Amino acid sequence: MRCFKAGHAQIALAALVATANVASAALYNDASQLPTLKYDFIVIGAGAAGNVIATRLTENSKFSVLVIEAGISDQGVLGVEVPFLAPSNLPNSSVTWNYSTTPQAALNDRVLAYSRGRVLGGSSSINFLTYTRGSNDEYNRWATLTGDQNWSWNKLSPYYFKSSRLVPPVDGHSTAGLVIPADHGNGPIQVSLPGMPSELDGRVVSTSKASGSQFPFNEDIQSGNSVGVGIAQSTIGGGVRSSSSTAYLEPVLNRPNLDVLIDNTVTRLVQSGTTGRTPIFKQVEFAPSASATRTIVTANNEVILSAGSIGTPQILMLSGIGNPSDLTALGIKSVVNLPDVGQHLQDHPIMSNYFLVNSTNTFDDVLRDPSILNADLAQWQNNNTGLFGNAPANAVAFLRIPSNASIFTTVQDPTAGSGSAHFEMIWADGFAANVIAQPATGHYVTINTAVVSPTSTGSVRLASADPFAFPLIDPGFFSTAFDQFAMLSAVKAARAFMSADAWKGFVISRFGPVGDAESDDDIIAAARDAIITIWHPTSTARMSPKNASWGVVDSQLLVKGVSGLRIVDASVIPIIPSAHTVAPVYILAERAADIIKAAW
Ligand SMILES: Cc1cc2nc3c(=O)[nH]c(=O)nc-3n(C[C@H](O)[C@H](O)[C@H](O)COP(=O)(O)OP(=O)(O)OC[C@H]3O[C@@H](n4cnc5c(N)ncnc54)[C@H](O)[C@@H]3O)c2cc1C
Ligand SMILES: *[C@@H]1O[C@H](CO)[C@@H](O)[C@H](O)[C@H]1NC(C)=O
Ligand SMILES: *[C@@H]1O[C@H](CO)[C@@H](O)[C@H](O)[C@H]1NC(C)=O
Ligand SMILES: *[C@@H]1O[C@H](CO)[C@@H](O)[C@H](O)[C@H]1NC(C)=O
Ligand SMILES: *[C@@H]1O[C@H](CO)[C@@H](O)[C@H](O)[C@H]1NC(C)=O
Ligand SMILES: *[C@@H]1O[C@H](CO)[C@@H](O)[C@H](O)[C@H]1NC(C)=O
Ligand SMILES: *[C@@H]1O[C@H](CO)[C@@H](O)[C@H](O)[C@H]1NC(C)=O
Ligand SMILES: *[C@@H]1O[C@H](CO)[C@@H](O)[C@H](O)[C@H]1NC(C)=O
Fold first, then answer.
1. Which residue owns the Cα nearest ligand 8 atom 6?
2. Of 149, 151, 508, 548, which is the most exposed, with the fewest CB atoms less than 10 Å away?
3. Average pLDDT rounded to a whole number, residues 274-294
4. What is the architecture, at CATH level 2, of domain 189-240+347-460+468-533?
5. Would you say residue 23 has pLDDT above 60?
6. 419-468 pLDDT, tens per residue?
7. Does the C-beta of 546 come closer than 6 Å to ligand 8?
8. pTM of the shown model
C-alpha cells in the first residue's frame, strides 16, 4: 500500500500533488512577520501531537503560543486531502522529509525510504489514515513502566474520548454490527468506516465469523481488546482526510494568542541560563534554510518539542542533549548526559502478500488508466464520494501467535497482554505496489502483513552537526528470531484466511516472490527482500520514572536534567504499541496538554 508505480497513472498522480500553497492570513512564513519574539509556550512541530498542544493551550486566553513548523501549509494539497491518494505523497514530495534508513543488515542490506510528514499536520497529513486506539494492556504497561498510574487505560480513556469521534461513512450506508458507537468519543478527529464498501468486506467478515477462534471477529477494536478481524476505521470525515491540522489547528487559527510559523526549521534549542546546576532551555533557534539568517525566540514558560520520533532526538542532540561522546565526536558541546536520546527506535516491518483474483472491480485499472483515475477524481471533487474518499485499506486483522508456538520456548511474549496482537493483516482491493511494481495486467488483492510487537530495536543518530543534514535512521528491522517468526506466522495466516470458502472462485492464485515461497526458510528469505516500513517509529525519547537510569523524559514528559523543556510526540512512548500510532499520539498529547495547563 505505498507508492503507486504505474506508468501513466504515476505521472497523473505527480501532477495532482503539485502544491497549491494557498496563502492564509493567520499563518506566517517569515520570522520578520512575527509580532513578538517572546511567547509563553513555543511548540516545535505542527504534527499530530504539536497541533493538539497548541490548540488546547490556547483555550486559555492568558497563554500565548507560537508553533514553528518546517513544512508548508496543507491547504489545497490534493495528495493530503484525498484519502485514496495518500500513497502518492511518497517517497519524496513537497510534503515529506525524504529520509531513508541505513542499510538494513537483516534485509539484505537494503536502504528503505523512510518518509515523514513535513507539512501542517505532520505525518497525520500524509499517513494512510488507519485508526487504531491500541489495547487496554498497552496503556497499563505504560503506567507500569513509568510508575505513573495516570498513563493507565482507565485514566487515559477520557483523553481518547476527547480526541476523536465516529462519523457516518460518506455514502451514509448502515454500519450496524461493524462498529460500536459507544466505544467512540466526541473529539475533533473524525473517524469513519469506508465510504464505498469493497467486494472484500463481506468476505472478510464472513471468513472471520466462520473461523471461530482462529480469526475472531471483533466488532470494534477500540474497545480495549485489539485482537480480531474487522472493517477498517479511518481518520476520514465526509470523504476527506481528518488530520491534526484540519481537526485541531485550522478551526482555532484565528485565536489572538496563537501564532503559527511555517517554512522554518528549528536548528537547535539554546540554553537560556541555569537554575541551580540545571541548564534551562527556553530558547529556540530556527531558519528558513541552511544559508539564511537564524532567529531566536524565547519561551516565558516552556518549550514543547513535538518534532516526532526522528526530529525530536535530532534537535535534542543538536542542542547538546544526548550521548556525550557521540556529540563531542561531531564537535557539538555536550550539555546534558542523556545517552538514551535517539536509542530504542522501534517500528513495525510490513510487506505485501499478493493474490491474483477473478474480479474486475479492484483498483488496478484505476492506476493503469488515467481516464478512470480522472473520473474518480472528478467524482471526489464533486461530492467527496467514491473510491477516492476511501483510505487504501478496507479491512484489518490483529492476531496473536498461539501460546504453545515453538518460539515461546526461547522468547518471552513481547506483547503487553492477551488483548494485544503479534501481527496484523491489512487488506487492499488492488495491487498495493511497493518493492515490486504493479503488473501491466491482471487484478489483485493485497494483504499487507506487519509485525506489530517487534523485538528489534534501532537508533536515530546525527550524521553531522549541520541541522539541515538528515540524521542516520536505523530501525534494525527483522533482526530478531521473534520478528522473523511473527512475520512467518502472519504470512501463513494470510494464506489460510484466503483459502477459506468465502474466497472460492475469487482468489485464483498467490502472486510474486513472497507468494511463490513455500518452505518456512523460503518465506523468511523472501521477506528480507519484501519488507518495508509502515512508518510507525516510536520510543527515541522514552518516558521512564523520574529516578530511572534509562529514558529521556519523566512521566510528566519533562526532559531529565533540564529545565523548561518537555517532549510531546511519538518519541516518548515507552514501547511501540501493537497498533497504528496516530491514535495513541493524539491520546498522549491530550493528556500532556492537561499536564502542562496544570503546571502553569
Ligand atoms: C506514510 C505514513 C503512513 C502512516 N500511516 C499511518 C496509519 O495509517 N495510521 C496511523 O495510526 N499512523 C500512521 N502513520 C504514523 C502516524 O502518522 C505518526 O505516528 C504520527 O503522525 C506521529 O505524530 P508525531 O506528532 O510524533 O509526529 P509527526 O506527526 O510526524 O509531526 C512532527 C512534525 O514536526 C515537524 N518537524 C520535525 N523536525 C522539525 C524541525 N527541525 N523544525 C520544525 N519542525 C520540525 C515535522 O515537519 C512534522 O510536521 C503513518 C506515518 C507515515 C509517515
Ligand atoms: C523532498 O523531495 C521533494 C521532491 O524531490 C522536494 O520537493 C522536497 O523539497 C524534498 N524535501 C526535503 C526536506 O528535502
Ligand atoms: C528521495 O530523497 C532522498 C534524499 O533526498 C534520496 O536519497 C532518494 O533517492 C529519493 N528517492 C526518490 C525515489 O527520488
Ligand atoms: C494524576 O492526575 C491527577 C489529576 O487527574 C493529579 O491530581 C495527580 O497528581 C496525577 N498523578 C501524578 C503521579 O502525576
Ligand atoms: C456524487 O456524485 C456522483 C457523480 O460524480 C453521483 O453519481 C453520486 O450519486 C453523488 N452522490 C451523492 C451522495 O450525492
Ligand atoms: C498448539 O495447540 C493446538 C490445540 O490446542 C494444537 O492443534 C497445535 O498443534 C499445538 N501447536 C504446537 C506447536 O504444539
Ligand atoms: C470467475 O468467476 C466466474 C463467476 O463470476 C466463474 O464462472 C469462473 O469460473 C471464475 N473463474 C475462475 C478462474 O475461478
Ligand atoms: C525510584 O523511586 C522509587 C520510589 O520512590 C523506588 O521504589 C525505586 O527503587 C527507585 N529506583 C531507582 C532506580 O532509584
1. 547
2. 149
3. 97
4. 2-Layer Sandwich (3.30)
5. no
6. 999 999 999 999 999 999 999 999 999 999 999 999 999 999 999 999 99
7. no
8. 0.96
The residue with cell 492476531 is 399
510 Cβ neighbours under 8 A, 6+ residues apart: 353, 354, 355, 356, 495, 516
> Residue 1 has what pLDDT?
36
C-alpha torsion sign, points 555, 561, 563, 564? negative
How far apart, in whole angstroms, are the C-alpha atoms of residue 105 and residue 509? 31
**Those residues with Cβ within 8 angstroms of residue 11's Cβ, 6 or more apart along the chain or in another chain:** 370
**26 confidence band (pLDDT: 50, 70, 90):** confident
Map out the domains of the chain as residue ranges: 7-126+245-342+537-599, 189-240+347-460+468-533
Copy the grid coordinates of residue 448: 499487507
For ligand 1, is residue 49 a contact (CB within 6 Å)? yes
Task: Name the residue of 3, 95, 100 to mutate for ligand 3: max ligand atoms within 8 A of Cβ.
Answer: 100
From start to end of 226-338, where are the E strands?
228-231, 236-237, 240-241, 258-261, 265-270, 273-275, 278-280, 283-287, 295-305, 321-322, 336-337
For residue 427, what is its C-alpha cell? Answer: 487488506
For residue 243, the number of C-alpha atoms closer than 13 Å in the C-beta half-sphere is: 31
Q: Which helix (H) or strand (E) holds 420?
A: none
Q: Cell numbers for 555, please give them.
A: 512521566
Name the residue type at position 300.
Answer: N
CA distances from 294 to 7, 30, 44, 289 (A): 43, 11, 15, 9
Kind and range of the H or E element at 461?
strand 458-461
| Nearest Cα residue to atom 6 of ligand 4 | 150
Compute, in angstroms, the gap from residue 501 CA to the centroid of ligand 1.
40
For residue 265, what are the CA distances in angstroms to 72, 226, 307, 314? Answer: 11, 37, 10, 12
Classify domain 7-126+245-342+537-599 at the CATH topology level: FAD/NAD(P)-binding domain (3.50.50)
Let me know if 173 is exposed, middle or buried by CB neighbors in 10 A (0-12, 13-18, 19+).
middle
Query: Any catalytic annotation for residue 184?
Result: no
Whether the Cβ atoms of residue 489 and residue 421 lie closer than 8 Å to each other: no
